[in-house]
Amino acid sequence: MTERVCKLDRKNAPQEQLFPVEGGAFGFDDNGYAVFPGFCDVHVHFREPGFSYKETVASGCAAAAAGGYTAVCAMPNLNPVPDSQEHLEAELAVIGRDATINVLPYAAITVGQRGEQLAALEEMAADVAGFSDDGRGVQRDEMMREAMLRAKKLGKMIVAHCEVNELLRGGYIHDGAYARAHGHRGICSESEYRQIERDLKLVEETGCAYHVCHISAKESVALIRQAKARGLDVSCETAPHYLLLDDSMLQEEGRFKMNPPVRGREDRQALIEGIQDGTIDIIATDHAPHSAEEKSRGLEKSAFGIVGLETAFPVLYTGLVLTGIISLEKLVELLSTNPRRRFNIPLTGEDCCVWDLNERYTIDPTGFRSMGRATPFAGMEVCGRCVKTVYNGKTVYIEK
């Protein structure tokens, strides 16, 4: 059951004013609905080819459109891994056949994402958004240095999952109070920020454009803030769950398990400050669907990953905008303007999404378009429902 009750001061009323953003504007139509430029998620997992029992390009696009997204960048943990033009073509064929929005693939940094040999970066560069081994950190310094040098020459960005393997120690949630109280093995924050620290030194050496995936720790925010102050070509993203949850909110369910994990209250506050002051450029979902069975094994044994495309805007609008933490304009920058600018993904035609910001409802994963259902936001009461998404002048989602 839904109810039109949410308020954002006077901005929820129909009005003539449009708020300019790069590539377009947003404002309110005659029905009082908010109209935004199409959102852009630079970190999704559409699982095809290779793992279509988790998600397909078609179902992923449907979920994205239902969340207001008209462009996404798809990570390379696939089978085959897009580490050569031949392997990339398998993914491009599926995208060409089934995508209903703009789906841009990443190519792997290393062959098979194994960190042992660089992938065929030169032959794939023209067809990809950047190079990433997402899901795995590149462990060898010399491997990452060479990848950065080649990416710079190709005019492409390194998009890094930062994780030091030897610091993981079998952990699967944050190494904090909840883990200690419930007998879980923790993942320390150092496993994330130590590799960011290493990579930033390599960026300074090579001049490569560099983007850090899903930062979760306060130390990571501080390192990126310092790097930007030094003028390095660096950007980063965080995800809605890191901004709205901390480890005191965990439950003994697989829908609370993701990598990196939700961390402590101080980390969450540092991330909020990072989006407020511009240290964090982008909010991405890290949409990572798995089968119901893979997410039913509790915190210890469930697969890492949650879905997020259909919940991102409402949970952020409810948790950050209506609470006065950031403005609506700032949220649109984080979801659309900034990712498009950083990854050179222009709005195409009449890309936009239309939202009823007054509608309050409870998140129910059984209604998701995604094949994945695991979300820590299940049961959360939120404001804001997408009523229409248009990509390249064509309606790709409309609320029924």
Which key phrases capture this entry?
400 residues; alpha/beta; seven-stranded antiparallel β-sheet; four-stranded parallel β-sheet
Alpha carbon gap, first and last residue: 14 Å
For the secondary structure, the number of strands is: 16
Q: How many strands, what sense, and barrel or not for the largest sheet?
A: 7 strands, antiparallel
Structural class: alpha/beta
**How many individual helices?**
12
Mean pLDDT: 94
Task: Describe the 3D structure.
The protein has 400 residues and is α/β, with parallel strands linked by helices. Helix content is 31%, strand content 18%. The protein has helices spanning 57-66, 85-98, 121-124, 141-154, 177-182, 190-206, 218-229, 240-244, 265-277, 298-301, 312-321, 328-343, and strands spanning 3-4, 19-21, 24-28, 34-37, 39-44, 69-74, 102-105, 158-160, 173-174, 186-187, 210-212, 234-238, 282-283, 352-362, 381-391, 394-398. The strands form four sheets. Strands 1, 2, 3, 4, 14, 15 and 16 form a seven-stranded antiparallel β-sheet that branches. Strands 8-11-12-13 form a four-stranded parallel β-sheet. Strands 5-6-7 form a three-stranded parallel β-sheet. α4 (141-154) packs across α6, α6 packs parallel to α7 and α7 (218-229) packs parallel to α9. The longest helix is centred in the middle third of the chain and has 17 residues, at 190-206. The model is unreliable at 1-5 and 7-23 (pLDDT under 50).
